[in-house]
Specification:
Oligomer: single chain
CATH class of the largest domain: Mainly Beta
Helix content: under 10%
Shape: elongated
Radius of gyration: 23 Å
């Protein structure tokens, strides 16, 4: 078994066509996932099995899934044959999307994998793959998995209360590392400026006196992952929340 957290290689894939076999995979035995010991996974009804669970870190709208079976010529029989695919928003309640058969890999470096299914924008944070059978070996695994992402599911929204007596300008937006926030206020009083990620988790927090009619702030970080963020500004009963996009 194996649990993977935030596997960036399966997200937001870009297909290039500069070579004859754009999605080809190498034949290394160590380049992939292999399980040789069965255990009970997150769904106990499957019993002891080979399984792998992906934690994407956020809830996403999922698109097409492509899988490259084990492509080591000496261990092609370890490649998965029948797999069950389940998804979950919380890691506790699961929805089964069916059983799928994956053809054995070619063992050649031009092997391009298989399109397994389209999630059709199903919403999930966790993806569980449970192996029903391999192509003959006691061990089971695959070389690579990619899932196209159609969008992120956010639980915060962009708004501004009618009582807002400040003006917020954000630039550049979208941005790649840091951004500027210019805040002009007529409210007076302590001002709280916070940056949240798309799941509503606090990323940065600033406290301002509110005595200055204009504040210039530099926020964000090159270390933050790409995605949607929200800047919230609160002063007395006035509250505004503004969407920001980090592209890389």
């Amino acid at each position: 078994m194996r649990i993977l957290t935030i596997i960036s290689s399966i997200l937001l894939t870009i297909k290039l066509s500069a070579q004859c076999y754009p999605d080809r995979h190498n034949t290394n035995w160590f380049d992939g996932w292999t399980s040789c010991e069965t255990t009970t996974g997150p769904i106990s009804q499957y019993g002891e099995s080979h399984w792998i669970q992906y934690d994407l870190g956020y809830q996403y709208l999922l698109g097409e899934m492509k899988l490259w079976n084990l492509n080591d010529p000496a261990h092609l029989d370890r490649g998965v044959n029948e797999i069950n695919i389940d998804i979950s928003e919380d890691g506790e309640s699961w929805t089964n999307l069916g059983s799928y058969n994956v053809p054995i890999a070619s063992g050649f470096s031009i092997y391009e994998g298989e399109e397994i299914l389209d999630f059709n924008e199903a919403q999930a944070r966790y993806v569980l793959i449970t192996v029903g059978s391999s192509h003959g070996a006691a061990c089971a695994g695959f070389s690579e998995l990619k899932i196209n992402i159609e969008g992120v599911v956010t639980d915060v929204s962009e708004f501004e209360t009618p009582e807002a007596c400040f003006d917020v300008a954000i630039y550049p937006n979208p941005h790649t590392d840091i951004f500027n926030a210019r805040i002009r206020t007529q409210c007076g009083g302590l001002m709280t400026v916070q940056l949240h990620d798309a799941m509503g988790r606090l990323v940065q927090d600033r406290q301002l006196s509110g005595l200055n009619p204009e504040e210039q702030l530099v926020l964000g970080s090159a270390e933050l992952p790409a995605g949607i963020y929200y800047l919230s500004v609160q002063q007395e009963d006035a509250l505004g929340r503004y969407q920001i996009v980090k592209t890389r």
